[in-house]
Amino acid sequence: MSNRFDDQVVLITGAGSGLGRAAALQVAKEGAKLSLVDLNSESLEETKKVILAAVPEAEILLVTANVADEAAVKNYVEETVNKFSRIDGFFNNAGIEGKQNLTEDFGSDEFNKVVSINLNGVFYGLKYVLAVMKKQGSGSVVNTASVGGIRGVGNQSGYSASKHGVVGLTRNSAIEYGQFGVSIKAIAPGAIMTPMVEGSLKQIGGENWEEVGKEFVQPNPMKRFGKPEEVAYLVAFLLSNQANFINAAVVPIDGGQSYKY
């Protein structure tokens, strides 16, 4: 395997599970030093164990933080720079789905909670990481949007609104920071079998969630859920120097779902 990330520092939020953990493992295998952020410290420790089992020599910083708290975001960026002196790649990934309901029944508190994590958290991450990358004159950012950020998703007002916002932030910041040697893009995952998606299926189907899942993927051209490691391969490429000229792009990884409708 190529060592595309030798001597590079990659910062990942939402690293305690799902896409964040898969991406952390992938870039560690390719030589990255890691700063891993999550609200759940136990999940972070588990991610570290998974990585060290595969890459015993990996250098890993763990930071427990709520990405909806600007001061906490500023702190995880400062801790990363204090330890590693730089940030070469940033997977701005932490997010939640929230409860499912018609817009008229969607609670305002729930809406604000989803937006504060999914959108404000991405903004705070960009705000502090881009200042570091601008000073370096280099860097690559991948924001986690969603197919829900490029088309509507019923019963998910907060999620869809927040992910559309992530797409907007991606394009806006890419226009601003390309001149400083920083490329910024987003991924738009479809139904990937992560703990978050499993939780959503359980909201809908309860004990029958696996059957609901089988029905859920039938409209997808590939008729299956994606795997976290499939997303991790894409994220690793987009964070690498091989993708420096990809800027302001929103890349679907959804089995063709967003193109079918």
UniProtKB/TrEMBL annotation:
Pfam families per the UniProt record, alphabetical: adh_short_C2 (PF13561)
Superkingdom of the source species: Bacteria
InterPro entries reported for this sequence: NAD(P)-bd_dom_sf, SDR_fam
Coiled-coil zones: none
Keywords: Oxidoreductase
Family recorded in the similarity comment: Belongs to the short-chain dehydrogenases/reductases (SDR) family.
PANTHER family linked: DEHYDROGENASES, SHORT CHAIN (PTHR24321), ESTRADIOL 17-BETA-DEHYDROGENASE 8-RELATED (PTHR24321:SF8)
Record's protein name: SDR family oxidoreductase
Provenance organism: Psychrobacillus mangrovi
